[in-house]
Amino acid sequence: MDLISSLGISKDQFNWIFDLAKEKKEEKVHHKPLLDKTVGMAFFEPSTRTYTSFDAAAKKSGASVVGFKGADMTSTVKGESFSDTIRMLNCYSDCIVLRHKYDGSAKFASEISEVPVINAGDGKNEHPTQSLIDLFTIKERFGGIDGLSYCMMGDLKYSRTTNSLLYLLNRFNPSDVYVYSPESLGVRNEVLSKLNYKCTVLSDEDFNSTLESVDVLYVTRLQKERFTDENEYHKFKGSYRVDDETITSLGKDSIVLHALPRVDEINRKIDSSDKSMYFQQARNGVPVRMALLEMIFDGKQ
Ligand code: NCD
């Protein structure tokens, strides 16, 4: 099976991944189920966490890892097409983990590939494996996902992580979902139209009064590389920030998540707060991706 969109993840699949990832995290399982597998990494875009945690997850599960990070050392620079690169990875690996700057590239690759394709981020479209990590972190902390109040904050127009998280929440019953962004960087209508729950857009005033009731504040950076006009990016730079004041306004059991990298939207001073869970969230990338790789190879529907 492929993993292209969070819209394609069922509740059963999420629960299966959650349970197995929890066992992996608690180191209850030591066998290496993927000894005969090779994971092919095709990272055409920069990455720290996604690449490294997939690499670690594959190796901890016993798989070999081949591929590349950065297309500049591949035959792409000689003029090789994207589809031929995918075909080549089919010759050397049992699944492809793909990151690319173009929306839809993972879907396109899955149509060419004979081995499963995992979308590790396609342009401003989606990042489904990140949404699994996000909900894993939330469920681990709160014991569940239903009944919580969520607020996505930041550049929601170009962020693929928030799209995938919003889609995955379709499978659950959040009490409230809020979105808060600089004007003109709101969630795109094509995304909103696929949600089966009410998503409320907050003004600056609403945001301040709503914070107290928010359980999960999910922050994203300005996606600089996706702005078509650099002046537009500079216009928004520094326009939102999570700091001590935000942390104090949140309820006492609330958490702050961020897929990272952060730039200036999270003040480093709040890193030591119990509410700041973005580093634990990054750490969860390994057990969640270990469980996911097993699911992909087992073909669990
Ligand atoms: C995110 C991404 O690549 O979309 N990073 C990640 O995978 N952890 C978020 C971002 O780049 O802002």
Keywords:
alpha/beta; 12 helices; Rossmann fold; 9 strands; five-stranded parallel β-sheet; binds N-carbamoyl-L-aspartate; 301 residues
Structure overview:
- With 301 residues, the chain is an alpha/beta fold.
- The protein has two domains: 6-127 and 284-298, Rossmann fold, CATH 3.40.50.1370; 128-282, Aspartate/ornithine carbamoyltransferase (Rossmann fold), CATH 3.40.50.
- Helices cover 38% and strands 16% of the residues.
- It has twelve helices and nine strands.
- It has helices at residues 11-25, 49-60, 82-92, 105-112, 128-142, 160-168, 189-192, 204-210, 230-236, 244-249, 278-283, 285-298, and strands spanning 38-43, 64-69, 95-100, 117-122, 149-154, 176-180, 199-201, 216-220, 255-258.
- The strands form two sheets. A five-stranded parallel β-sheet has the order 7-6-5-8-9, with no helix packed on it.
- α1 (11-25) packs across α5 (128-142), α2 (49-60) crosses α12 (285-298) and α5 packs across α6 (160-168).
- The longest helix has 15 residues, at 11-25.
- The radius of gyration is 19 Å and the shape is globular.
- The N and C termini lie close together (8 Å).
- The site of N-carbamoyl-L-aspartate (NCD) has 12 residues, from α2 and α6.
